């Protein structure tokens, strides 16, 4: 849970905004989440007359059962790893800066941004402190940071918060963020040993979306990749940039992570560490897609050893632990 509000008005407020998660690892909960997520026209940029019949007639009939089973494999007593990690991150930022009010929300699911804004108004009626929404997506595109920016602008207008409510973006090469990534990757590379190859995997997007946005997303992924290698002092030949989580039939930006894992194993690079800079907390895409299925693909293709580097909010036996330098990077956004 996010920290309770203090009695004194905060100097400013941060709302850390993650994508979201089903409320439970059940087909019904997954169906509700996917209906909201995939029904957003900024997530699937297809004509509504074309996409909505497919979504409701096919996708939401077939996909929830399969996705719910995957969630069952990663669910814990604390619930979804993404939910636990996001809440822990908000708590860590709040603990480091008691003069800030820090909460979290999701773009899809609950608590959403409107709910957080209502709670803030109730906690501090009449306050004029600035409220900054921080999308937890360092590499920007319409389906992640973009849809959060649009929602924030709409709520600022409808709630009378223009001038107070704004978006603060985490840079894809922010020092504390890159340092957290490098610390995790370095530790995992050392633990695996044997000069492993580093595969840096980001969430993919359709190629036509990236082209329409001037290739901003792919360029920012590349910027993070280059900054990470520089921090690690890792030669370029020991690292590969790739993209995961393809969906639908349109061409997506590449190369594809699953293809690269097989290619690395078949080419004799038998030891691999996978880092996922676009995922700031653990979730289905890291634990299940890469940690389980990606590992299986790599080992079946002849790989010798596979390791997944933890995200900036690391899952530990004591619960999610945000990297201190990453906490600092987010805290700095409170001042715009």
Give a summary of the structure in a few sentences:
This protein is 47% helix and 17% strand. With 336 residues, it is of the alpha/beta class.
Structure description:
Among the domains are: 27-74; 177-318, Rossmann fold (3-Layer(aba) Sandwich). The strands form three sheets. The protein has a four-stranded parallel β-sheet with strand order 2-1-3-4, sandwiched between helices. The protein has a four-stranded parallel β-sheet with strand order 6-5-7-8, sandwiched between helices. 45% of the residues are buried. The longest helix has 27 residues, at 48-74. It has eleven helices and ten strands. The model is unreliable at 1-6 (pLDDT under 50). β3, α5 (142-158) and β4 (165-167) form a beta-alpha-beta unit. The chain has helices at residues 27-38, 48-74, 81-96, 113-123, 142-158, 175-192, 207-212, 216-232, 257-266, 284-300, 324-331; strands spanning 12-20, 100-108, 131-135, 165-167, 197-203, 239-244, 271-275, 305-308, 313-316, 319-322.
Number of strands: 10
Low-confidence stretches: 1-6
CATH architecture of the domain at 177-318: 3-Layer(aba) Sandwich
Could you spell the SSE succession in H and E letters? EHHHEHEHEHEHHEHEHEEEH
Which word captures the global form?
globular
How do the strands line up in the largest sheet?
2-1-3-4
Structural class of the secondary structure composition?
A: alpha/beta
């Amino acid at each position: 849970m996010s920290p309770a509000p203090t009695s004194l008005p905060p100097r400013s407020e941060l709302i850390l905004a993650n994508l979201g998660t089903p409320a439970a690892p059940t087909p019904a909960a997954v169906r509700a989440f996917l209906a909201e997520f995939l029904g957003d026209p900024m997530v699937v940029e297809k004509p509504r007359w074309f996409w909505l019949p497919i979504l409701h007639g096919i996708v939401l009939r077939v996909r929830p059962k399969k996705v719910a089973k995957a969630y069952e494999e990663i669910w814990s007593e604390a619930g979804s790893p993404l939910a636990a990690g996001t809440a822990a991150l908000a708590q860590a930022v709040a603990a480091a800066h008691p003069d800030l009010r820090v909460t979290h929300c999701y773009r899809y699911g609950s608590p959403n941004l409107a709910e957080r804004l209502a709670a803030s108004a109730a906690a501090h009626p009449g306050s004029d402190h600035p409220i900054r929404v921080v999308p937890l997506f360092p590499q920007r595109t319409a389906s992640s940071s973009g849809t959060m920016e649009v929602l924030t602008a709409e709520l600022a207008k409808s709630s009378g918060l223009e001038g107070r409510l704004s978006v603060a973006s985490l840079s894809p090469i922010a020092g504390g963020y890159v340092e957290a990534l490098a610390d995790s990757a370095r530790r995992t590379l050392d633990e695996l040993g044997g000069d492993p190859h580093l595969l840096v995997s980001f969430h993919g997007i359709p190629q036509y979306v990236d082209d329409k946005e001037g290739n901003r997303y792919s360029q920012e992924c590349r910027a993070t990749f280059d900054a990470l290698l520089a921090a690690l002092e890792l030669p370029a030949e020991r690292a590969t940039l790739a993209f995961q989580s393809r969906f639908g039939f349109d061409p997506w930006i590449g190369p594809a992570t699953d293809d690269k894992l097989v290619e690395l194993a078949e080419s004799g690079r038998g030891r691999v560490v996978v880092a996922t800079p676009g995922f700031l907390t653990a979730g289905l895409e890291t634990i299940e897609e890469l940690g389980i299925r990606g590992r299986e693909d790599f080992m079946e293709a002849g790989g010798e050893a596979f390791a997944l580097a933890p995200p900036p909010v690391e899952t530990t036996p004591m619960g999610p632990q945000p990297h201190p330098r990453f906490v600092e990077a987010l805290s700095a956004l409170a001042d715009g």
